Amino acid sequence: MTSVLHRAGRLLFAAAAALALLAGPGAVAAQAANPYERGPAPTLSALQASRGPYAVSQTSVSRLAVTGFGGGEIYYPTTTADGTFGAIAVSPGFTAYWSSISWLGPRLASHGFVVIGIETNTTADQPGSRGDQLLAALDYLTQRSSVRSRVDSSRLAVGGHSMGGGGSLEAASDRPSLQAALPLAPWNTDKSWSELRVPTLIVGGESDAVAPVASHSIPFYTSIPASAEKAYLELNNASHFFPQTVNTETAVQAVSWLKRFVDDDTRYDQFICPGPSGLAISDYRSTCPIG
């Protein structure tokens, strides 16, 4: 229901903009603005930088203080001047801890998102369990966390690496009101996601021997209906472990995807369609959302 209302809200804002055009130029600025837009107009160089425009603070979450997941770290924009922000919960992979992909926390938060990087209940948890834990982390973030007043609970996303990426698909399947999913080198025994309705960006590594793209990322992408909005980025010669070090191509597309679908910010369409190219990219596919 939240997703339906959120999308209906977009139509209302478009209608308001049309009415403002009839009322005159002074009304356009007041009525046509996207209320979820955060930060300056994007440039490729700004997205490629190690940090975005927002200063970031961090707070730890003890596993003893939560239920349904194993605690973790929260990263959030320090400013209170811009109102609330969209949020994303991110899971590490099989046998791994949040520290293995923790660069994503401040990177995403510095572009105007609240990020909770989770520890799983056990490092052997499978994708289905990791999906449940991502949703439990979002519920904690929006309802009980010390930063809950900074989060817009109607604009939430999930992501993860390996089994965490497979878990983000599970979470998106279970909670279609989510606004975006970011599976990175995802692994899952379930290859068909035809029920998915959440805009999903999958990033795979061309040389991944743990979750080969031919039997994981590509079938996942192909099975998601185009109506959900989807993109597939494949990194040239990248292994399964590319998310465990800073990866600029992943960061650029992840931020752009979250901005476009969590913040409804069409300024980022330019980075999604036609999408990235160059020596670092071996494949890119997208349903190309515009406007």
From TrEMBL:
GO terms for molecular function: carboxylic ester hydrolase activity. Residues 1-29 form the signal peptide. The keyword Hydrolase applies. The keyword Hydrolase applies. Residues 31-289 form the PET hydrolase/cutinase-like domain. Keywords: Hydrolase, Signal. Belongs to the AB hydrolase superfamily. This is Predicted dienelactone hydrolase.
